[in-house]
Design goal:
Length: 373
């Protein structure tokens, strides 16, 4: 009885630890600490179901290495397939071929699904070696008790993983634009303040690109708001695929977008902005069952330290550079730079003939949609 009390007290400590976690990695680290104390004289593995829903990967292990648990086909796991605890050894029959591999003479194995509601997160597998004291009173009672302990712990882990997943989803919804999937303006302000402090602390540049789609209102008037939303969605996808992993894209509002580029000075950011502009203008965009080409955007670029002296000032200068790009004919990039102590706007790319081509495409978009199927 005393040994059981110790086990349940340790389970309670694990539960308190899990309740304080905010990420999956913290859950797995906490479990790794308490599992050997709960499951003494045992070997075990906690496996996480990967996104492909076919593979189980170990995220916490203790005791002797269970080589069979490196990567497991989820379809071979009887506990995961049935959603119930599976046990093998002693007087138990075993339907799970995977669990059979782990259990030999003198061993007792338990495999419990890590679930919450209908959501499957993984599997907890424990192989018990031998027992002492009150736990040896009978095999049947022993099996039942150990299975219940594994089940309780797996339910606790599953519940915690579900809570963390839900918190992550809610947080993600609060910081992302629902149409494009990019981060929203509120999170942009939080991000640029964080990156600003990092840039000043590490004495490195920080740039901002602000841009919007040229003649978006005319596009909406001609094709309707559904097509306009499709265009914005496509641009969001284009940005996520086209920028560096360290660059952070946002939907600033309406047809305006913004990218924060940590570590990039104004010249590097301007080159990247112009590369994005050129690439997007050559892209065939799926709209209304066909494709449209020649959609362009204008961009303004500003940076710290050679320009804005605060996050708000950098954004304001980028917005001013964007306005200048629009005023000079659209479909171009303008950067705000400091020259002899004053801010000036310089055109990075002069599109000339490209602007004329863009006008033609704008006027004949319906033919393009019908022509390119």
């Amino acid at each position: 009885m005393e040994e059981k009390n110790v086990i349940f007290e340790t389970i309670n400590q694990l539960n308190l630890t899990l309740m304080a976690t905010n990420a999956e990695e913290e859950i797995f680290r906490g479990f790794q600490i308490f599992a050997p104390r709960i499951f003494q004289e045992a070997d075990g593995t906690l496996m996480r179901l990967l996104e492909d829903v076919r593979t189980l990967k170990p995220v916490a292990m203790w005791g002797e290495s269970l080589d069979e648990c490196q990567f497991v086909n989820a379809q071979e796991c009887w506990a995961l397939r049935t959603g119930k605890v599976v046990q093998c050894g002693f007087q138990s029959e075993c339907l799970c071929s995977y669990l059979k591999k782990l259990v030999g003479q003198g061993y007792f194995g338990v495999c419990s699904p890590v679930i919450a509601g209908s959501k499957h997160f993984g599997v907890l597998t424990v192989r018990f070696r031998h027992f002492q004291g009150a736990l040896n009173s009978s095999y049947r009672r022993q099996e039942k008790f150990l299975s219940s302990v594994v089940s309780i712990v797996s339910l606790m882990v599953g519940s915690t993983l579900s809570n963390v997943s839900l918190r992550d989803q809610l947080k993600d919804m609060s910081i992302r634009d629902s149409l494009t999937g990019l981060f929203n303006r509120r999170f942009m302000q939080e991000t640029i303040n964080r990156e600003w402090h990092r840039a000043t602390r590490e004495n490195r540049p920080l740039s901002v690109i602000m841009f919007d789609i040229d003649r978006f209102k005319q596009f909406n008037d001609h094709y309707g708001h559904v097509a306009g939303d499709s265009l914005l969605q496509y641009l969001g996808t284009f940005l996520k695929k086209s920028i560096r992993a360290s660059d952070i894209p946002f939907r600033y509002g309406g047809e305006e977008f913004l990218i924060i580029l940590p570590g990039a000075d104004v010249d590097v950011a301007a080159i990247r902005a112009d590369s994005l502009r050129r690439s997007f203008s050559r892209t065939l965009i799926p709209i209304e069952g066909g494709y449209i080409e020649g959609i362009t955007f204008s961009a303004g670029v500003a940076a710290y330290p050679h320009g804005g002296k605060s996050p708000d000032e950098v954004i304001k200068l980028a917005d001013g550079a964007l306005y200048e790009a629009k005023k000079q004919g659209r479909n171009r990039v303008v950067k705000a730079v400091s020259r002899k102590g004053r801010i000036v706007f310089e055109v990075v790319s002069d599109t000339g003939v490209q602007e004329e081509t863009h006008d033609t495409v704008n006027n004949e978009r319906s033919q393009v949609v019908n022509k390119i199927q």
